[in-house]
Amino acid sequence: MSTSKRVSVITTPIYYVNDVPHVGHAYTTIAADTLARARRLGGEDVFFLTGTDEHGQNIERIARERGISEQEHCDLISAAFRSLWERYDIRYDRFIRTTEDVHRRGVLKLWGLLRGAKTPDGRDAVYLGKYSGWYCPRCEGFKDEEELRQPGNVCPDHERPCEWTEEENFFFRLSAYEAWLRETIESDRLRIRPDSRKNEILGVIKQGLKDFSVSRARVKWGIPVPEQPDHVLYVWVDALSNYVTALGFADDAEPYRHYWAGGDERLHLIGKDIIRFHCLYWPAILHAAGVPVPTREFGQGFITRDGRKLSKTTGNVIDPVALVERLGPDAARYFVLREAPYGADWDFTDSAFVGRYNADLANDLGNLVSRALTMVLRYCDGRVPARWEPGPATALAPATVDFTRAFAASVCAPADGLAAKVLGRYEDIDFSSALTELWSWVGQFNQAIVQAEPWTLAKDPARRAELEAFLYRLLEGVRLVAVLASPVMPRAASRIFGMLGLGEREPGPDDLAWGRLEPGRPLGSIVPLFPRVDRDAEPTPGSDGTPAVKAASKKQKETPVSETTPPPAPPRPEAAPAAAAAPSTAPTGDRIDIADFAKVELRAAKVTAAEKIAGSKKLVRLQVDLGSETRQVVAGIADAYEAEALVGKTVVLVANLKPAKLMGVESNGMVLAGSVDGKAVLCTFDAEVAPGTKVK
Ligand code: MSP
C-alpha cells in the first residue's frame, strides 16, 4: 500500500441498455465523477469506471421488437450514455461495455476460479442443482413467494406476471459465506453506508442467505457457460464482474494490479435498489475466487418527481438531457448534489432547481466573483493587489482585522481550514454538506465586503495597504472557492481561474495552497458566470414533453428577470420630525383612511445584486430577494450609495406598484428612502428581518 498517495477505484453501476439514460443514472455518475475529481484535487491516484450492462433476455426482446440485432441495439444505447456523460462533463477513466471481448475473457477467468473454489467448510463453491421458482424476466431474477403480488404472481417492480421456471443450473453456495460476510460488514472491512443500508444488509444476513443460481437456460444473449453451452452466465455475475474485467483482470494487466489488487480502496457507488447484489453476492464471489473484495459501498437515495416514483409508464420522468441543457452542466450537477444528502430519497421540482440556481449560483457565488473582480479592476487597476502580512505596524479597521484574522485562522489553516473541511466532506460522500460549508464561506466573504467597505478605504490614500490587504484576501477567497467547488462545477471553476488571470484550467492539488495569486499580475476579463433566470420561463421537461415540466431551451438565458419598479419618487421636502406628543395640526381632511394605506404593500427586501445603470448618474439596478421571489428594481440612489455597498442591505420596498421602465430598464417596485441634502438615505431595519416580511 502506498504511503503518500492513496490509490483507489471508484465505480458507478453499469447501466442497462434496455432504455435511454435516466436522471437516476446521471445522479450516480455525477456523484462518482465529483468524488473522483475531489480525490484528484487532493493529489490522489484515482481510477473512475463506468459503463453499460448489455446482456440478458430484456435486450434480446427489445432488439427483436425494434427489428435490429442485439449488438446494434447495444451500440446505439451505449453511445447515448457516453454522449450524455460528455454533456455532464463526466471524466471517466474507462467506459466498460459487457459486450467487449476483454470482459468476456475476464468473466470466464473468474468463472474458472469459482469452479475450482472451496467454501470455508471444504465444499465446492459452485455446484449443479435444480431450480424452480417464479422468474421475472425484467428483473432477470427469481422472486420469493412473499415478494409476489397476488393474484397472478405479479412482480412488484415491473407489475408484470412472473414465469414459473424449472431448470438445472449452476449455483453459488452463498449460504457458506454467511459468517464471513457478517464479520466483514460488521467490522467495516467492507464499509457500507449510509448506516441504514448496512443495517439492512446485516438484517438480510440474519434471516439466512440462500444459494443463488449463476447460469440460465433459454437466454442466448450473454456469455455461454463453458461446461453447459446452452446456458449463459447469470446476468448479475456477468455484470458485477465488470468492476475487475474493465481494469484488465483477464490478462492480469497493470491497471488491474495497480488499482484493484494493489489499491487502497475499491469503492462502489450504487442505488439502494441493487445493494444486495453488491454487498452480498459480489464480495462473496470475489472472496471465494481469491480476489480482493470491495472495501466500501454507498447506496444513494432515489429521486422522485412531484412526490411520485419516476416511471416511463406513468410519464413521470425527468429527462437528463433536458436537465443539463436547461441551465448547463455545472448548475445541474450542483443542484442534484446540493439539494439533499446523498443517501436520502428526495423530490425533484423545477422551481427548486431554478430557485437554487438563482439564489446560490447567480446571487451568492456570481455576485461574490463579480464584486471582488470589479473592485480590483476599479481600485487596483485590474492587477492582483499587494499581499499583506499582519504586523504590529499596520493599523487596520476592525472589520478588516476580523476578516484577515478569519482568513488566517479558518480559511488558510492547513489542518482544519476550509480546504480540509470541504475535502473531508467530499470524502465522506456527503456532497450537500461539502457545498453547504463552502457556501457559508461565500456568504461570509460577501458579508465581509459590506463590513469592510472597500469603497470607503479606496477614498483614503492613507488606507491603501488596508484596501489591498482586504482585496488580496478576497481574491484568494474567490480562488479557493473555485478550487473547492471544482469537483462539482468544473466549468465555472475554470472560468473563475480565467478571470483571476490564472488561465482557464482545472484546478489541481497545487492550487489548494494559500497565496497562489501573484501580486501585480493582471486579471483576465470578467465574464458573467451564472446569469439569473426567470423562474417561470422554461421548466425542465420530462423526456416525453409532459406538461409538468416542459421543453428546455438550448442555452442559459441572459437574465430576462421580471422586474422593476419605478425609481424612488423625486425627493420630497422632508417633514420636520414630529415632536413626541404634540397634537397634530394637519387638517384631518388631507389624511387617508387606513383602508387606503392597506392598499400599499410594503415588504422587507434584501438586495442581492446592484449595478449602476450605464448613462445615468442616479439610477442603480437592484436585484432584491422577497423571500418567495426575486425582483429587479430601479432606484435613484446611485449618487448616494456605491453599488457594491447596497448588496446585503435589507430595505423597504413598495411591492405592489405597477411595473415601470426607467432608462429602458424595467422596475418592479419602489425602494423607500428619505433625503438629506438632496441625497437619498435608505429606509432599513434596526434588526435582522427576513426577506419578504410585511412592513405595516
Ligand atoms: N445493470 C444494473 C447494475 C449492474 S452493476 C454491476 C442496473 N442498471 S440500471 O440501469 O437499472 O441502473 C440502476 C442504478 O441507476 C441505480 O442503482 C441507481 O444508481 C440509478 N438509479 C436509477 N433510478 C434512480 C432514481 N430514481 N433515483 C436515483 N438513482 C436511481 O441496475
Shape: elongated
Number of strands: 27
Largest sheet: 7 strands, parallel
Beta-strand proportion? 15-25%
What's the end-to-end separation, in Å? Answer: 67 Å
Bound small molecules, deduplicated: 5'-O-[(L-methionyl)-sulphamoyl]adenosine
Total of helices:
21
Low-confidence stretches: 543-589
Mean pLDDT, to the nearest integer, reads 86
Task: Write down the Rg.
Answer: 31 Å
Strand-pairing-aware structural class: alpha/beta
Helix content: 25-40%
Detailed description of the structure:
By secondary structure, the protein is α/β, with parallel strands linked by helices. It is 37% helix and 18% strand. It contains 21 helices and 27 strands. Helix 15 packs antiparallel against helix 16 and helix 16 packs antiparallel against helix 18. The longest helix is centred in the middle third of the chain and has 30 residues. It is elongated and about 95 Å long. About 7% of the residues have low confidence. Bound molecules: 5'-O-[(L-methionyl)-sulphamoyl]adenosine. 5'-O-[(L-methionyl)-sulphamoyl]adenosine binds next to strand 2, helix 1, helix 7 and strand 13.
